[in-house]
Amino acid sequence: MKIKAAVVFEQSGNFQIEFLQLSEPNDDEVLVRVAAAGICHTDLAGRDGHLPIPPPPSVFGHEGAGIVERVGARVTKVKPGDHVVMAWDCCGTCPSCKSGKDPYCLNFFLHNFHGARPDGSTTLSKDGQVIHGSFFSQSSFASHALANERNVVKVREDVPLEVLAPLGCGVMTGAGAVMNALQVSPGSSIAVFGVGTVGISAILAAVVSGCTTIIAVDINPERLATAKDMGATHTVNASEVDPVKTILDITDGGVQFSLECVGNPKVLRQAVDVLPRLGVCGLCGVVPPGTEVALNMDLIMNGRTVRGIIEGDAIPDLFIPKLIDLYCQGRFPFDRLITYYPFAEINKAVEDMEKGKVIKPVLQM
Questions:
Q1: Residue 277 backbone phi and psi in degrees, to 5
Q2: Lower Cβ count inside 10 Å, N or C end of the chain?
Q3: pLDDT surpasses 90 at 353
Q4: Mind listing the domains of the chain with CATH numbers?
Q5: Mean pLDDT across the stretch 59-81?
Q6: Are 65 and 34 in contact (CB under 8 A)?
């Protein structure tokens, strides 16, 4: 079928809206009419060649939300007319998947960064030219997307799809890091380094979880103000003060939990250095393969933990509906992070995000 999609034809190039041909759904696939798609830094990492993906031309987008139009013969999870949020895909058969740890699927790259289906078949083309798609098994910077049954999440229909789009990655990552991976307890303390979509979602989750000391760290005053408005009890501008010393002074010895949401070795070191004994640092920030960091081994040996967190340790079918319920109760107002753009203004949305003017741009199709 003919669809409209935002195509990158060269590395780091602009997105160009084009008419493409989308293949028919396989027996285990779902055709989704995309209502909205969030833009994430991972999309831009793909555009810029920082991920192990095939070279352009490519269609990105992995925070799509929409309405099911058709389903393959073996699909039982959803039906035409259902509202869905799309997340990532996994193989469902490796040890990680079988233990309920889908984000750590041993075949994650094959199912999400392959530029095609896992079997190598492609889904997008233009005038006979292959366009790499299936990004996170969706490529949702488009009017329609093909997803696998595994990575669509049926959601309630009384919340606009334009609001729900960011749940597929950024919001779920930050909230899940706090609620699922770190499992913070009421009365605990946490420092969040980097307060973009992931960081502020983590702060919202810390509020829901009952943390009583929530410290937001960034170099952008406007984002720090937003973090304060969203529930941070303290803010630290790392461009003005030493964040480690400041946090140790605020907490009289350190925070029980910290979260690195920047993807910067220097910031990860700071996030570890603010921990007391038995403190835990979670790493959410995405970095290029091979990035190294220097840590104080003595600090680690004395009971501190550093752990990587992918996609908030979440099971999307279970976690996304919980976040939506919290949103509907007024306890998780992540929609306040969103700035909407028409699909045709995707390059303006990307520019505004890269300049720090907006936190979570969402394209309306």
A1: -60, 140
A2: N
A3: yes
A4: 2-168+333-364 (3.90.180.10), 173-310 (3.40.50.720)
A5: 98
A6: yes
State the sign of the Cα–Cα–Cα–Cα dihedral 18, 19, 23, 25. positive
Q: Are 267 and 199 in contact (CB under 8 A)?
A: no
Three-class SS of residue 206?
helix
The 10 Å Cβ neighbour count of residue 115 is 23
Q: Give the pLDDT of residue 50.
A: 87
Measured CA to CA, the distance from residue 149 to residue 363 in angstroms comes to: 23
Alpha helices in 121-276 (DSSP H): 161-164, 170-176, 197-209, 221-229, 243-251, 265-273
User: How many CB atoms sit inside 10 A of residue 119's CB?
Assistant: 8
What is the per-residue burial (b if ≥16 Cβ within 10 Å, else e) of 288-327?
A: eeeeeeeeeeebeeeebebeebbbbbbbbeebbbebbebb
Beta strands in the chain (DSSP E): 2-8, 15-22, 29-38, 58-59, 64-71, 83-86, 124-126, 129-131, 144-148, 152-154, 189-193, 213-218, 234-237, 257-260, 280-283, 305-308, 338-342, 360-364
| Res 288 pLDDT > 90 | no
Q: What are phi and psi of 260, to 5 degrees?
A: -100, 115
What phi, psi does 240 have (nearest 5°)?
A: -115, -30
Q: What average pLDDT does this structure show over 59-71?
A: 98
Q: Which two tokens stand for residue 26?
A: 């396989």
Q: CA nearest 262: which of 325, 320, 204, 218?
A: 218
The answer, yes or no, to whether residue 289 has pLDDT greater than 90, is no
Contacts of 186 (CB under 8 A, 6+ apart): 209, 210, 211, 212
Q: What is the pLDDT of residue 143?
A: 98
Kindly report, residue by residue over 197-229, the tens digit of the pLDDT: 999 999 999 999 999 999 999 999 999 999 999
Structure tokens at 127: 């005038």
